[in-house]
Amino acid sequence: MTQVIGHQGAPTRAPANTVAAFRAARAVGADGVELDVRRTADGRLAVSHDAHLPDGRALVDLPAAALPPDMPDLAAALDACAGLALVNVEIKNWPADVDFDPDLAIAEQVAAVLDARPPAERERFVVSCFHEPTVDRVRTAAPGLATAWLTLGFADPGADVARLAAAGHAAVHPHHSAVDAEVVTLAHAAGLAVNTWTCDLPDRIRWLADAGVDGIVTNDPVLALEALGRGPAEPGDEADEADEEE
Question: pLDDT tens-digit profile of 101-151?
Fold first, then answer.
């Protein structure tokens, strides 16, 4: 079964990359979520897609105490994802970013946080990054964690897949526009899962599932579930679960 993975939680239901968004994704029946991690000035791991706050200040220049109250750290985000089958932790570490870490310490820090979680929980994690040396470092630091390379597309699908498999990675995460039947076949033959991002088009979601992709990251888990004929959680489940969390 192709998994439905909420992009930054369920951003149509709650602010993206917040505890509320992760709980909402679980409540509507998503199989998993994707979340983003960046570093702060005092070495904390903040869950944020953007390197800057809306007022222009860079997270890497701020202590964690100065961040918005609804921006969780990685540990709090993981707690909110309890019960999900998959949690994709994307490390934001690209050379053009203001917070790029050339020493890759952020990779080791994320690996340490995830590796310290209970064994049953660790099995649900996959760590990804566009910067391939970063996921290579995660793989070295915590060989038991699943890792994946994020990419817009492939220069040479066969060579890219072979390289990732040889490095011990578990998956490849291409943009959905770069996925075709050949990519899925090559990846699966090499033992790699294919989790594609970020698709909100019902017809394309159905095509990707028919092609055999393992997971589809989407901004609208309810739309994706309905496209796949699974339907969202029953009305009222989200409210009931929110009450249980209080």
Answer: 999 999 999 999 999 999 999 999 999 999 999 999 999 999 999 999 999
- At 162-200, the pLDDT tens digits run 999 999 999 999 999 999 999 999 999 999 999 999 999
Q: Is the pLDDT of residue 64 over 60?
A: yes
* Contact indicator for 218, 7 with CB cutoff of 8 Å: yes
The CATH number of whichever domain residue 201 belongs to comes to 3.20.20.190
Instruction: List the domain range (segments joined by +) for residue 111.
Output: 3-245
